[in-house]
Amino acid sequence: MTYYVLIVIHLLTRRVQIAGTTPQPASAFMMQVGRNLTDPFDGFLVGKRFLIMDRDPKYTKEFRELLKEAGTQIVRLPARSPNLNAYGQPVDRASGRRGSDSGRCAMPPVPG
After folding, report:
1. CA end-to-end span of the chain, whole Å?
2. Tens digit of pLDDT per residue, the chain (112 long)?
3. Which residues contact 9 (CB under 8 A, 6 or more apart)?
4. For residue 89, which phi and psi values (nearest 5 degrees)?
5. CA angle 63-67-71, nearest 5°?
6. Could you give the CA distance from residue 111 to residue 109 in angstroms, rounded to a whole number?
7. Read out DSSP for 71-106?
8. How many Cβ atoms are within 10 Å of 39's Cβ, its own excluded?
9. Closest by Cα among 15, 11, 8 to 30
10. Which CATH class is domain 2-111?
């Protein structure tokens, strides 16, 4: 079975958080992840002004609006931004994965 793993990385400290895993990244899952990330008490995005994300369609308009309402400015990367790959590859190596694209803060499939 394939799972999708959404990771967020604080670029200054390289702190990584697994925001969620799912076999089917539907809109309801993304909305719950958004609520978790913006939780006013312990959400990963508390005190963060920007969130860099690629143009994956899994980041629905509703998900982006939820983050904006919480005060997070969304920075969408241009199409085909391979240089951001370097941020996620160490996470993949630590998890035993090879050759993925999770550094784009996307939700790459993880073989289960």
Report:
1. 5
2. 888 888 888 888 888 889 999 998 899 999 999 999 999 999 999 888 889 888 888 899 999 999 999 999 998 888 877 666 555 555 555 555 543 333 334 444 444 4
3. 15, 16, 17, 87, 88, 91, 103, 105
4. -60, -40
5. 165
6. 6
7. TPEEEEPPSS-GGGHHHHHHHHHHHT--S--GGGS-
8. 13
9. 8
10. alpha beta
